Input
Amino acid sequence: METKLAVFKGKGIRTMLHNNEWWFVVEDVVLAIIDSKDPKQYIQRMKQRDPELGKGWI
Output
């Protein structure tokens, strides 16, 4: 298992190589693409608006 830090628009995104697939921390990706100080709250609102998105979320 390999872990790295990717940089997008100057913001770090935690990544991990698992079974030859790159996995990204969603909270880090959201923080990098939106202008929000609270990505967890943004993700919660997205899940409320789209019930399908909330399925299987850990």
